[in-house]
Design brief:
- The chain is mainly α.
- The chain has two domains: 107 residues; 124 residues, Four Helix Bundle (Hemerythrin (Met), subunit A) (Up-down Bundle), CATH 1.20.120.
- The protein has eleven helices and two strands.
- Strands 1-2 form a two-stranded antiparallel sheet.
- α8 runs antiparallel to α9.
- The longest helix is centred in the middle third of the chain and has 23 residues.
- It is elongated and about 70 Å long.
- The relative contact order is 0.10.
Length: 237
């Protein structure tokens, strides 16, 4: 994110605050520059990342997310970025929100398998687009992938791939010792909860899947997949 913010700032200064090779300190060459495709490509990525960064469970980001949301809104409002100073100050504030925890973010992401990252990316894209059913289905599929992987690592002879998520959860909860108790007890209710809403999301039920429900499930998915205690249990059992 630090590199992204630097690239965003540098490119837009060259694009909107440079005339005849001279960098302007005040007004841009086009007052509506923030609504151009070139600018919006940066802004949309920044806005999306700030919208979901709280799901990482990092207190520093939690404490600063509200301010970063406000700053990113200003970055998309022509009246608030009519001078180069204000454009840069908003970008720098967002950069400072991520800079101290960059290594912590990387450590958390290293807990994820490539397949889990792909599924979470799809879940987040659906969530940001308001596709709540698809968001839940994809986030729970990441949980299913992790659960299946952990169970197979402890008992590779078990024929688990043929089981539905509900049956897979039942198999684990009924035979925790067999599978090395790799899932911390605090996450056991989450497994059942996610399976219920997965069924609602992929089958034509009358249950309405709201944004609040999707937010809850995705947050719990991240809490599950980024739990370092689970990784330690996997390595030591």
């Amino acid at each position: 994110m630090v590199d992204f913010c630097d690239k965003f700032k540098k490119d837009i200064i060259e694009f909107a605050f440079t005339q005849s090779g001279t960098i302007l300190n005040d007004n841009p060459t086009n007052v509506w520059y923030c609504w151009t495709p070139r600018y919006q490509q940066y802004w949309t990525n920044l806005n999306d990342i700030i919208s979901v960064c709280g799901m990482l469970g990092i207190k520093w980001l939690d404490d600063r997310q509200s301010e970063m949301i406000e700053r990113v809104k200003w970055l998309n409002t022509p009246d608030t970025i009519q001078q180069r100073y204000f454009f840069e100050s908003h970008i720098d504030c967002i950069k400072q929100g991520f800079e101290p925890v960059e290594s912590q973010i990387k450590e958390k992401l290293q807990l994820l398998d490539r397949e889990e990252i792909d599924r979470l990316n799809e879940a987040l894209r659906c969530y940001l687009e308001g596709c709540n059913h698809a968001a839940i289905a994809m986030s729970v599929s990441a949980i299913e992938f992790r659960l299946l992987s952990l169970m197979n690592s402890k008992c590779p002879t078990a024929k688990l791939e043929e089981l539905t998520l509900g049956r897979l959860i039942g198999e684990y909860l009924s035979n925790k010792q067999k599978y090395g108790s790799v899932i911390p007890e605090k996450h056991e209710p989450l497994l059942q909860h996610c399976n219920v809403y997965r069924i609602f999301s992929v089958h034509p039920k009358k249950e309405r899947i709201t944004k609040a429900i999707a937010t809850s499930i995705i947050n719990m998915t991240f809490a599950f997949l980024l739990d370092e205690d689970m990784k330690r249990r996997t390595e030591t059992k």
